[in-house]
Structures are given as structure tokens and as C-alpha cells.
């Protein structure tokens, strides 16, 4: 059976990366979509594993060839989700996980409305503030900017197929696994299996 594309999105600080990492540790037959970028590799980063590293010229060629499901420029560098690797993984029967920003999720949904969108939310606004400040990696001003953006992003949640509240990692991952399973039990996927019965 062909794989499906699952978009995991939500504001910064909700724990998308942690949840996704745990999902991959527990679930087989998944493919994590590796983004392309024009930024230089950091020490230890491997091309094709952490990112597909492209020159700005190569990136623009890919844009012109409509080779991305979504792309954007962020802090002077370009980032995008290559279609080719997503399509190859789905053809192998693997489910593709896209861990992307809200704007990227909207772009993918416009191109691939059949992709399943999962919004990851914190248990409360206070908890999101606590997590962002607790990281200790950014100034208070930067944290405030992320929180202001998160307020806008929450307004998109109602348009998603599913909402997972990340109150406990265990529960959040269990809900994601249940969503993946349920999506493969839909009639459009199963009806051919029962056509010969009866």
C-alpha cells in the first residue's frame, strides 16, 4: 500500500521535535522528510541526513522546476521540502512525516490537500511560556516575539485534521500512533481488500 503524508505543525516550543523523535523510535515504516537549505553545513552535519545542502542558484532552480512542496526564506537562508524524496518514500509504502512551520504546512496543504495535518499544542499558554523561557537559548525579547507569533498560529488549529495536546510525551506519541493507524483504515484504502469478500 502507498504511504501517506502527515504534517506535524505547531508553534515553536510545543515539542514537535521531541514527539517526532519518540514516534520514530516506536513506529516502523516511517520516513522523516529532510529539508533542503542554502545555509552552510554546521560541524558534524551530513548532506542528505540533516539537510540537503544546496547553493542559492541550485535552490532557485528547484523553485523554478516546482520541485518543492513548500519553501521559504528565514534569516537570510532558504529552506524547502523536496517533493522527490517524499514521493519516493510514499511509493515504497512508507508514511512521510513533515515537521514544519505553520506557513509551510499551509503551502503543502494547497499542493497536496490529501496530506493529513496534525496540530501540536501545549497544555496551556503558561506552559508554552515556561518551555520557551526554560530553553535558555534565546533572549527574553526573542521569546516574546515567538509567543506573539504563536498567538497567530493558534488561530489555524481549527482547520487541521487533528489536534494533539502535548501535556505528556507518552500520551502525545500514543495519540499520533493512533492517528497514523486510523488513517490507514479509511474506506478509500481498505475497500479494495474487501471487494472480493461475499
Question: How does this structure look, described?
Answer:
This protein has 198 residues and is an alpha/beta fold. It has a single domain, classed as P-loop containing nucleotide triphosphate hydrolases (Rossmann fold). Helix content is 44%, strand content 20%. The chain contains eight helices and nine strands. α1 (16-26) crosses α7 and α5 (125-135) packs antiparallel against α6. The radius of gyration is 18 Å and the shape is globular. The model has no long low-confidence stretch (mean pLDDT 91).
* CATH architecture descriptor: 3-Layer(aba) Sandwich
User: Are there runs of 5+ residues with pLDDT below 50, and where?
Assistant: none
How far is the N terminus from the C terminus?
23 Å
Report Rg.
Answer: 18 Å
Helix content range: 40-55%
CATH topology: Rossmann fold
How many E strands? 9
**Major sheet: arrangement of strands:** 2-7-1-8-9
- Tell me the number of structural domains: 1
- Helix count, DSSP H or I runs of 4 or more residues: 8
Mean pLDDT: 91
In what range is the share of β-strand residues?
15-25%
- Let me know the largest β-sheet: 5 strands, parallel
The succession of helices and strands, N to C, reads EHEEEHEEHEHEHHEHH
Under the CATH scheme, which class?
A: Alpha Beta
